[in-house]
Amino acid sequence: MKVLNVSILLILFLSGCVPAVQQPVPLPSEPFLVIAHRGASAYAPAHTFPSYELAIEMGAHYIELDLHRTKDGKLVVLHNDSIELNGHEVEIDEISSDVLSAFKPAEEFNQPTNEYASQKFASLRVPSLEQVLREFGDQTNYYIEIKSPDRYPGIERQLIDQLSDHHLLDRDDPLPKVIIQSFSSDSLKEVHALSPGTPLIQLYSFKKKAKLSPAKLKKVSRYASGIGVNASVVTEHLVNTVHESGLAIHPFTVNEIEQLSSLISMGIDGVFTDKPDLIITSLNQHKSLN
Ligand code: G3P
Ligand code: CA
């Protein structure tokens, strides 16, 4: 029966009735991408409007968003799966957006030891994806992480529909308006099937050494345009192997000039950073020296 199914599929494919899976779009080789990790999150509370505004002012190419979904189905932008509310840890998918609106993301940022702490952040709330897209429209580019997709069935379709409603997909800009990233390959494959023109980044995190063989990366290149990986495991050999598979590489999270210089000499294509200003100044100096 299985052989019969495969034969039927092959006949349909050869006759043009089944569309071939579209190859991922390659990311442009220039410019070196500065991805504002949770916004300019060294200077303002992560994933808040001030953090994104600062990142855009500083000239970051992308603002990075981490995505979750509340119990009432709203896509919201924050890092963790859970928050502490009234002394209790609560999961985002178990609370409504109304309950989430009581959470103050600045409280963690506004520690006395933080030189950037400010009372002006105290009233900030967790934004919804809709609020972010309405606020910034097409004045920036979005690098969106689907967090914990197993908790949020159908999040891929919901995200693509929302981005499409804002006319952010399948455009002809020098840089893609939207890049989508995830640690989940299943989630990315689903996004690729729904929106093959949207570049995807497969995320990895390794403790000591990156375990990414050419064969593994070849498989990734069937649905993704690049990988994101913790900077501490990036080597020149890894960068070359990734590039030989036709993928870009964006290490996270780079906030030191020395680390940036070392990674640039290895040939990386961009970085996630909490300090877009520092990275951009350093890149400009690097350019004027070369
Ligand atoms: O998305 C790249 C990087 O942000 C992954 O780590 O934990 O900061 O979302 P995290
Ligand atoms: Ca992230």
UniProtKB/TrEMBL annotation:
Boundaries of every GP-PDE domain copy: 32-283
InterPro entries according to UniProt: GP_PDE_dom (IPR030395), PLC-like_Pdiesterase_TIM-brl (IPR017946)
Signal peptide bounds: 1-20
Swiss-Prot/TrEMBL keywords: Signal
Protein name: Glycerophosphodiester phosphodiesterase family protein
Organism of provenance: Sporosarcina aquimarina
